[in-house]
Automatic annotation (TrEMBL):
One MF term in the entry's GO annotations: phosphoenolpyruvate carboxylase activity
Taxon lineage: Bacteria, Pseudomonadati, Pseudomonadota, Alphaproteobacteria, Sphingomonadales
Keyword terms of this UniProt record: Carbon dioxide fixation, Lyase, Magnesium
Keyword Lyase applies: yes
Family affiliation: Belongs to the PEPCase type 1 family.
Annotated EC: 4.1.1.31
Name of protein: Phosphoenolpyruvate carboxylase
Biological role: Forms oxaloacetate, a four-carbon dicarboxylic acid source for the tricarboxylic acid cycle.
Length: 892
């Protein structure tokens, strides 16, 4: 299978040829020729040489078995093309590294001292989540990563692997393994499976990548950088709508994480012991190092003159005891001597620093860098917990649980009937009292018992692994101050919130974080936070902590109000929150619930951070990473380093550079944007929520019912059993539209709004001068380029009400055309992505491989919905969903 000539990437051509050879050798010449015919005719159709009928005729000749093979072939080519592009940096941001950011800041008069001062108080965290849009099995991703490693050897001109295989033969072997590996999961994922997956990324990618990245940053800064970038995780702690996440999953993920990070440290200490063979006959050591060596009581006579090795023997023994204490298992390699467990990561770090200081006292080449420096950095970043685990639950659950606790304690019989002022007064009284509400003798609902078990397990975890293991409690559907106070009441039940005493403020060991999701919630966010900080005890608590986090949700705001209104409401919320935090004397930390698709906040993280409102970043930002984007951005240590560095450099620039716009332009552009957003909102709401039969149209023209059955996540597709769009999760909403190539959540309503606005000169001025609008339109342009309404039209026969289908689809087509035409006019282009040739080439490469998949998917959906029960039909649908998602990349 050769790559089409529209790409010049030699890796894609090479891997495509290898895949073709594998198909021919393992599945026969006849199958290869049938697949190659469909491929070549699809490429010719993309070039305009042939009509679409020729593709259809090739597909019709496939039996069900060959059809499954065809889908796998096209899926694997897309996967290999993604790999090749990632290696060549096609998706990388220009100048998105720390060195360029430092040079850019220095050119504007900001020296390294200003950068270091910001980094001292900075916090940047990618948070890995389990949202189910990663349709590939972990086995497929592992084979893909092995191919990436082998391609790196090939780049360096290495002819053989370490085991003696020819590199190109080893690549062919891995491609053959991909071809013969089942692509679909047979069983639905459980939370434990999702935990395994995220731990694999943390263990195999983040653990090696972060210390190496910091070593590069230290060189660029000319000093040791503070450990400002760390990693977070939601999996095992995010209970919102997922009944399978509970106290046991929380314990499981933290125990497994501790096991992984401690095993990494043990191996690191073991390697240092092999490396630091320094003899006191040839080099002096500090008294502190000598004491550490003596304390180890290593009986080995051969090490009598090797104090570093003896000291490391003691460190290993204490770390092995820590491993045993925290995991309940014997360490992977037994210790030579006995030792007491470390009380916390700081004690382990202190011993490592003692070794480093002794080496530094000798100066020379051993004074900096190396394994020891990277190990100290790892302890700074990962502690004994590996990744900070967030908790999340819906505010409605908290209301019910707190209401039940209050009723059983005799405080109030019906908390739900109280108005907001009454709730706040009551909850503040409870928080001021040391008395607990829960009684071991009362009978509570399963929901209440589960929520109490969660906060108690969180308290146990902090005592066991350190305070860094859980720091955030996200509250979905936050609408009021009482939503935040309710969480503090629950935390108080586990000793994680303690009332203030005398002049001392209260203490909260876990921060309650509101998640503002809908358009209305985002608009009300500044008022909620102002009222929150106005509570004397809360204001004192926040100032003592120094910062307060607010999470803003992209997914539900998009489903609620459409793409443009969503991103504008989020931008405006950040803008409006900044002065509220400034008045309170508290640093704002925004947590962006960005997703893989543009409809869920996806797109370039680098551009998105730079486009944040002035004063809203301040060196602190957290961003969710989910679904297929985790594999795309963090599939290997190299790609992880590239994407983490882009996030870090953008945060530096957004925090330290002067605003791109003057106050007058901000006001002028903001007024224009408010009018455009209002029009886009009206257009979107009229179609999605105001059109009779729209929800039935959506459910039938897209493979939503089939996606809901995919075994790609532990969380149900809908929050309730209703078929209302309001109750559907944002992920299947966006994912379904992408499969049918409509991608409506990423653009609908924008064209109507821009056309109605009319002032083209102002729009062009805005997009050229304002990073926010430039980023917004760039993301929409990518979605418009990936959508194809000519292909989407093939899905129309799936809709039972043909008249309604034609009418609704006609409105969608008109909306796409207006979005397309307006964008080209504003950006002064003759075609989409004209100014982004690399991305244009990437998308064009995939189009010939996606169209046949869509056509085949339609045919299979027709047969499936008509009642045909051949299991290969269902498998074909699921494979096509997998293949289309792989080709589109950020589709969910």
């Amino acid at each position: 299978m050769a790559a089409p000539s529209i790409t010049q990437n030699p890796d894609i051509r090479f891997l495509g040829r290898v895949l073709g050879d594998v198909i021919r050798e393992t599945s026969g010449e006849a199958l290869f020729r049938r697949i190659e015919y469909i491929r070549s005719t699809s490429v010719d159709r993309a070039r305009g040489i042939l009509s679409g009928d020729s593709i259809a005729s090739g597909l019709e000749s496939l039996g069900l078995d060959d059809m499954l093979a065809f889908v796998r072939g096209f899926m694997l080519f897309s996967m290999l093309a993604n790999l090749a592009e990632d290696r060549q940096g096609v998706a990388a941001e220009p100048e998105a590294d720390l060195a360029h950011a430092l040079a850019r800041l220095e050119a504007k008069g900001l020296d390294r001292a200003a950068v270091m001062a910001l980094l001292e108080r900075a916090l940047i965290v990618p948070v890995l989540t389990a949202h189910p849009t990663e349709v590939r099995r972990k086995s497929m991703i592992d084979h893909r990563n092995h191919i990436a490693e082998l391609m790196a050897l090939r780049d360096r001109g290495v002819a053989e692997t370490a085991s003696g295989d020819r590199v190109e033969d080893a690549i062919a072997r891995q491609v053959a393994l991909l071809w013969q590996t089942r692509a679909l999961r047979r069983e639905r994922l459980f939370v434990a499976d999702e935990i395994d997956t995220v731990l694999a990324y943390l263990r195999e990618v983040f653990l090696p990548a972060l210390p190496a990245l910091y070593a590069r940053w230290d060189r660029a800064l000319g000093a040791r950088a503070p450990s400002f970038l760390r990693v977070g995780n939601w999996i095992g702690g995010d209970r919102d709508g997922n009944p399978y996440v509970n106290a046991e999953t929380l314990r499981l993920v933290l125990a497994r994480a501790a096991e992984a990070v401690l095993a990494y440290y043990l191996e690191g200490v073991h390697e240092l012991g092999a490396e630091l063979s320094i003899s006191t006959e040839l080099a002096a050591v500090t008294p502190e190092l000598a004491a550490l060596a003596e304390a180890a009581q290593d009986p080995g006579r051969a090490r009598g003159d090797e104090p570093y090795r003896r000291a490391l023997t003691g460190l290993y023994a204490r770390l092995a005891a820590t491993y045993q204490a925290l995991t309940g298992q014997a360490p992977p390699r037994a210790a030579r001597v006995s030792g007491e467990p470390y009380a916390d990561p700081a004690a382990f770090r202190a011993d490592l620093v003692t070794i480093a200081q002794s080496l530094r006292a000798g100066a020379g080449a051993l004074a900096t860098g190396g394994k020891l420096s990277r190990l100290i950095r790892a302890v700074d970043c990962f502690g004994f917990h590996l990744a900070t685990l967030d908790l999340r639950q819906n505010a409605d659950v908290h209301e019910r649980v707190v209401g039940e606790l209050l009723a059983h304690a005799g405080v109030t019989p019906d908390y739900a009937t109280l108005d907001e002022a009454e709730r706040i007064a009551l909850l503040r009284r409870e928080l001021a009292s040391p008395r607990l509400l829960a009684s071991p003798f009362a009978r509570y609902s399963d929901e209440t018992l589960s929520e109490l078990a969660i906060v108690r397990a969180a308290a146990e975890a902090q005592a066991r692994y350190g305070a860094g293991c859980i720091q955030i409690y996200n509250i979905s559907k936050s609408e009021s101050v009482s939503d935040l106070l309710e969480v503090h009441v629950l935390l108080k039940e586990a000793g994680l919130y303690r009332p203030g005493e005398g002049e001392a403020p209260p203490e909260a060991r876990i921060m309650a974080v509101p998640l503002f999701e809908t358009i209305a919630d985002l608009q009300n966010a500044p008022d909620v936070m102002r009222a929150w900080f106005a509570l004397p005890e809360i204001g004192a608590l926040a100032r003592a902590r120094g910062h307060q986090e607010v999470m803003v949700g992209y997914s539900d705001s998009n489903k609620d109000g459409g793409y443009l209104t969503s991103v504008w409401s989020l931008h405006r919320a950040g803008q409006a929150l900044a002065p509220v935090f400034e008045e309170a004397g508290v640093t704002m930390q925004l947590f962006h619930g960005r997703g893989g698709a543009v409809g869920r906040g996806g797109g370039s993280s680098f551009a998105a951070i730079l486009a944040q409102p002035p004063g809203s970043v301040q060196g602190r930002i957290r961003i969710t990473e989910q679904g297929e984007v985790i594999a795309a951005k963090y599939g290997t240590p190299e790609s992880a380093a590239t994407n983490l560095e882009a996030m870090a450099s953008a945060t530096l620039l957004a925090s330290l550079e002067a605003p791109a716009l003057s106050a007058a332009d901000q006001a002028r552009f903001g007024d224009a944007m408010a009018r455009i957003s209002e029009a886009a909102f009206a257009s979107y709401r009229d179609l999605v929520y105001g059109t009779e039969g729209f929800r039935h149209f959506f459910r039938q023209i897209t493979p939503l019912p089939e996606i809901a059955g995919l075994k790609i996540g532990s969380r149900p597709a809908s929050r309730t059993k209703s078929d209302r769009i309001e109750d559907l999760r944002a992920i299947p909403w966006v994912f379904s539209w992408a499969q049918a190539r409509i991608m409506l959540p990423g653009w609908y309503g924008v064209g109507d709004a821009l056309a109605a606005f009319g002032d083209m000169a102002l729009l062009r001025e805005m997009v050229e001068a304002w990073p926010f609008l430039a980023s917004t339109l760039a993301n929409m342009e990518m979605v418009l380029a990936k959508s194809d309404l000519a292909i989407a039209e093939h899905y129309l026969p799936l809709v039972e009400d043909r008249a309604a289908a034609e009418a609704i689809f006609g409105r969608i087509k008109a909306g796409w055309s207006r979005a397309h035409d307006s964008l080209l006019a504003i950006t002064r282009q003759t075609r989409l992505l004209e100014k982004h040739p690399s991305l244009d080439a990437s998308i064009r490469l995939r189009l010939p491989y996606i169209e046949p998949l869509n056509l085949l998917q339609v045919e299979l959906l027709k047969r499936h919905r008509a009642g045909e029960d051949d299991p290969r039909i269902r498998e074909g649908i699921e494979l096509s969903i997998n293949a289309i998602a792989t080709a589109l990349r950020n589709s969910g």
